[in-house]
Structure formats: C-alpha cells, structure tokens
Amino acid sequence: MAFKLSKRMFFFIIFLFIFIFYYISIKGSFVIFLIMSFIFLYLIVLIIILYVLYPNIAKERSFPKKAPTVAVVTYAFNNFQPVKRTIEALLKLEYPIPFKVYVITDGTCIFLKNLKGVKQIVIDKKYFKKSKNTKSIVMNEGLKYIKDENIFCVDGDTIVDSKALKRMTGFLEENKVVAVNGILVPENRKSFWEKVQVIEYSLNWGIYQRILSAMDSINIPIGAMFLMKKKVFDQLGGYSTNNFVEDKELGYRIIKAGYKIRCCEVAYGFTETPKTLKGWYKQRKRWSRGELATIYEHRDVLFNFKYSVFGMFVLPFTFFVQTIGVAFIFTYIFIYLRRFFIFIYFLISEFFKNSILLYPNFSSIVLPSTIYVIFLSLIIFLIYALFAFKITRFNLNYRYILPFVFFIFIYTYLLISVYLISIIQELLGFENKW
User: Do residues 168 and 182 lie in contact, with contact meaning Cβ atoms separated by under 8 Å?
Assistant: First the structure.
C-alpha cells in the first residue's frame, strides 16, 4: 500500500528538494562537480557491465515450437484515414499460423469495409466521447472481444516492419516475461525539429531499453507497438482510464504483479512525431505530467525491496537525476545571468570612467565546472551514440550535424524545463489536457 501523502504534498516535497539543491549548488560549483562525476562514472560502468554480462539481452529469441495465437490490433475513429497505411503493413506481418487484424472503431471509417483480412470491432460511440483518455476506454472495450493468447497492439500512425511480430514472440517464452517492446523510430525526418527527435529516439531506444532489460526494469509496454499475453492484460484490468500515459501506468502494474517486460532490438516500428515545437511541447508535457502522476499513484514502489532493482535503484535514480537536472538549469541560469550583468556593468563603467572600451574577457563569465560538465557530457553522449545508433540503424550524415549539436547543447534543457513546468502544474492542480 502506498504511504499516506497527499498529491500536492508529494509534489511540494519534490519542488522543495529542487530548491534546496539549487541553493546548495549556487553556493559552490564543487557540489555540481561531485554529483556530475558520480552520474558520469555510473553511466560508463553501466555500459561496460551491460556489454560484458548481458550482450544478448535484447537479441531475437527462438520462435516457440508451437506458435501461440495472436490478435493484431489497432484502432481508428472519426474516419481516421492514415490508419490505412498501418493496416496494410499489419497485413504483411510474417507469422507461421493465420492471424486476424482487428480495428477497434466507432463505425465512421467506411474504407475499412473494402480491406480484406481486416475485422472491425465496432463499439458504441459513447466510448469515443471526450474523456481523460479515450484510447484507454476504446481499447479496453474492444479487447474484450478478443480471445487469442497474445495481443499485438499498434497505434494508427505506426508502420510496423514485417518481421517485427515474429521476432518479438520468442521473448514471451521467458519466465515471467509478459510483454515485449520493439524499437520505435520516427518516420518523418524532413524538418530540423523532426531530425532532432530522430536523434532522441535513436538514443533512447538504441541503448536505454537494453540497459533497463538487463535490470528487469522496463516499466512501460510502449503503446505505439507492443506484444503482450492477453490473459495477463485481462488479469491486470487492462488500461487505466484515469491516466494520460496508460502504457506507463500499465507497466508499473506489470512490475508490481511480479512480471517482466523485454525489448527486442531487431523489431522495428516507424511512428509519427510532432512536426512543430507547439505540438512537441503539448505531447511532452502530457507525457511528463502522466509520468509524475503515475509515480505518485505507485509511490509505494520507491525504495521498496519487494520490487528489486527497479524499486530500490532504477526508479529512485531516474527520479533523482530528472529532479536535479531542473536544479542544474536554474543554477546555471542564475550564475551566468549574474556574471553576465556584472561583466556588462564593468565594461560600461570603465568606458564612462576612463573613455576606454575594454576587450571582452569571456573567461570571467565561463565557469570551470561548466567546461568540465560539457566535456564529460560530450564523452558520455558520444559513447552512448556510438552503440545506440548502430542498434537503431541510424546514419548520422551531414544533414544531422546541426540537429546533433542542438540536441547536445539545448534540447536536453528544453526537456528538463518541460519537466519543471509539469511538476508545478501537478503541484497547483492544473487540469491536464490531451
């Protein structure tokens, strides 16, 4: 049972922790030096251990001797035309026994009637009314009609590689493994903003999921493309209808029930990412607030031996790094703004006092700890990128140089800023909108 603590008090404590760390780091950059050194050392050791002890943790498993029945499921409503490409890809999936492609729908997608091999699950339109999470309600209702052993769930804007399902199935033969993710990468890659997200997805999927697999700590069956045992999905009560990140919340319940999630690094899905900064901000704020709400709902996992490495280390460490990341941003903003204005004031005062325009000495602005952090960040980032890009088959060519630089020096700070906004909105009780 989760320890008794109101939601606002929970987020107030987080905010207070950020402020305390911010205050401490303002007083001395040595604190930043020590903490960043610890994090960087941990990440390097983690990569070494991962590739020495668990080199095959995300490799394809042998297909079961007896193929389990599987239902391939997507959803579409309000005459959502792009789902046709998704369905066409799903119909081409390789699998040793026949399977059906199901589309959970409200009956408005007339074009589905002409698609061979597709079975519509038409549910009452009342389930498609605006709610906190329409997808959860629709999927829960539609999946009641499916009796196959496994369900392969795919979002309507995700294009799945033909070999993905077959490659993922073998993982479900492992003890306690009930769900499998594939590698999700962006399909749209034209604009600068889209290219930045390609780099982000390639890094996250290429190495992070493998690390979490090695620690039995993947805590989300990615809603865009995942395979799961149907009886466990039913046993856990399906998706939560009160959470904006229904897949993340389901992942926590999977872990708490004693089950595991794996990732198959040779099963690919291609998804649509936000094309504009505004769209990206809305998506990431929804994800951040959903994640924070999930952590609060399942706060009994934090520092709990019952949930092994995930409860005792992975979740607390991730939560800690995200939180101090917010403090770091404001520490550097405060320090640099103060130093910058002092620097400008000194130049102007010398000019009026002695009529001399001094040559700017920018070394008086730049902190030694900043150079250290940037240097180590680049080393860690390049090590991660080296492994990650190989797994996701991402080619870092000249078109991605500027997005790559932007990702290193700016993008991470944008993500952390969204995280802070999410904490404040959760603290103040703002309504979360899809």
Answer: yes
Residue 280 has a pLDDT of 95
Q: Which two three-digit tokens encode residue 103?
A: 């589309």
- Measured CA to CA, the distance from residue 128 to residue 320 in angstroms comes to 38
What pLDDT is stored for residue 397 in this prediction?
86
pLDDT for res 359: 56
Q: How many helices (H) and strands (E) does the chain have?
A: 15, 8
Helices (H), 170-264: 192-203, 209-214, 230-235, 246-256
- For the chain, domain boundaries: 7-55+308-428, 70-277
Low-confidence ranges of the chain (pLDDT < 50): 1
DSSP 8-state code for residue 271: E
Cα Rg, the chain, nearest whole Å: 24
So what's the pLDDT on residue 372?
A: 61
Tell me the helix, strand and coil percentages in the chain, rounded to 5.
60, 10, 30
Please tell me the pTM assigned to this model: 0.88
SS (H, E, C) 212-223: HHHCCCCCCCCC
Q: What is the dihedral of CA 386, 62, 95, 217, to 10 degrees?
A: -50
Q: Token pair for residue 239? A: 């998706």
Residue 208 DSSP code: I
Give the Cβ contact number of residue 109 at 10 Å.
23
Domain 70-277 in CATH: superfamily? Answer: Spore Coat Polysaccharide Biosynthesis Protein SpsA; Chain A (3.90.550.10)
pLDDT, residue 228, reads 98
Any idea what the Cα angle at residue 14 is, between residues 12 and 20, rounded to 5°? 100
